[in-house]
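>> Question from a student workshop board

For tomorrow's exercise we were told to take the sequence and the ligand below, predict the bound structure, and bring the output to class. My setup keeps failing. Could a helper post the expected result so I can at least see what it should look like? The ligand is copper (II) ion.
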Amino acid sequence: MFSNASNFVQGVDTSFAIILGASLFFLVGITGVMVYFVVRYNKNKHPEAQDVHENKKLEITWTVIPTILVLVMFYFGWTGYEPMRKIPEEGIKVKAHAQMWSWQFEYENGKYSDTLVVPKDEAVILDLISRDVVHSLYIPAFRIKEDVVPGVNNKMWFIGQELGKYNIFCAEFCGDLHSKMLSSVHVIAPEEYNVWYNDTTQPEIHPGLVVLKKNACVSCHSLDGTRIVGPSFKGIWGHEVEVITNGEERTVMVDEDYVKRSIYDPNADVVKGFNPGLMIPYQNLVTEEEVNEIIDYLKTLK
Ligand SMILES: [Cu+2]
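>> Workshop helper replied:
Here is what the output should look like for this input. Compare the format with yours to find the bug.
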């Protein structure tokens, strides 16, 4: 508590401390009074039970004090929350793409990153985009969380005020590997950020693998033969695979047509032993050229 990692930490922590303090005060107070009454009005000391009717002073007290208390809690809750909804015009704009089960951050110059890199002391505005189901972007150290809903353009913002690396979680259950939907935000010095941001050269990896990573295909398909949610890509090229097409089992060859159909219309041929409906159609997300790059890459996975 009481770090200064983002511009929202103090507001949230103050209201948390006030609510916790009030709860503790009443926990101790009410327990104390209860114990006192048990002793004070014990049958030996107080044999005749008495009914108390109407006590104006008491009733006003127990109405007014809690009302003031919840208003105080509301005030601090509101002043902590309101700035989160006041998204500034100016700032570093990043698109946060959520998909089962990874995060991808897209910068204004087209740079993609699977961690959110931001400069210290600058406003960062995230456009929250989901390709499939409802996710939620949660940065506990910054005290911020916002749902990522398909078709809805939610936004969130923050200023990173302390250098460091902080966890990003998905806080909305989104299927099998929800708990592995992790990333991090790196707050770095502005000069360092400028160098990072302007370096748009892709690392030396196969363009097909770049496409697989960018679209999070690899969170369901392993490259080394292990079974995750979907079949591994290792060694599938040029081999036969048993699929279910319209309820009928058949054997097909993994070739250009099959791979393309699997990407654009994944439920047409469902690989035997795997579930349909998990993979979304990538018709509008992966271009034909990218499909060819994927195919080239699959050929290398012997
Ligand atoms: Cu998720």
